[in-house]
Amino acid sequence: MTQIPVPSPAHAPPLIEQRGLYFDELDLDVTYAHRPGRTVTETDNVLFTTITMNTQPLHLDAAWSAQQPLGQRLINSMFTLATMVGQSVTQLTQGTIIAQLGMTDVSFPHPLFHGDTLYTETVVLEKRLSATRPGQGIAVMKHTGRNQHMVAVAVATRSALMWTEDAHKASRRFS
């Protein structure tokens, strides 16, 4: 049997781990554009709607929806909200968030339809170090989802508890 040499840690190439931004790296009043966009399909809408037990015919019944004011099925707004937040994760919070604290001011100013593409942007509105959790901070972010025509289809303000870089690195050393 041939043994394959394993590089020693001293000779291992540098490791770069994909992550979001730490609390201390977030800038206020900067627009973070999350790409790529996500083209939403009928399958996405029907699966999400049925998985979440939402029997709303505006999402499931094409014939019924055709008779309603918008004339077609709508993408489930909870799918839109979840996708909008999800699009921000790799750039902002992947591996750097401790907990989502809440959402406020959620609105859906324009419908999203099958075949539309959702693009999301985030602006950090506020940030402050936690008074009770050293090495952690609270960031307040405003997410805006837009369709391919750049029309806002969803807006939400989200608060998250996040690591500072030094505290997170220190916590990982001892785990």
Please provide a written account of the structure.
This protein is of the alpha+beta class. It has a single domain, classed as Thiol Ester Dehydrase, Chain A (Roll). It has helices at about 40-50, 55-60, 60-65, 75-95, 165-175, and strands at about 30-40, 95-105, 115-130, 135-145, 150-165. Strands 1-3-4-5-2 form a five-stranded antiparallel β-sheet. A hairpin with a 5-residue loop joins strand 4 and strand 5. The longest helix is centred in the middle third of the chain and has 17 residues, at about 75-95.
Low-pLDDT runs of 5+ residues are none
CATH architecture: Roll
Strand proportion: 25-35%
Intertermini distance: 36 Å
Helical percent range? 25-40%
SS-based class: alpha+beta
Total number of strands: 5
Strand order of the largest sheet: 1-3-4-5-2
Q: Helix segment count?
A: 5
Instruction: Please tell me what the overall shape is.
Output: globular
Radius of gyration: 21 Å
| CATH top level label | Alpha Beta
* Number of structural units classed as domains: 1
| Biggest sheet statistics | 5 strands, antiparallel
- Nearest-integer average pLDDT: 93
Stated plainly, the CATH topology is called Thiol Ester Dehydrase, Chain A
Write the element-wise H/E pattern from the N-terminal end onward.
Answer: EHHHHEEEEH
User: Mind telling me the CATH superfamily name?
Assistant: Hotdog Thioesterase
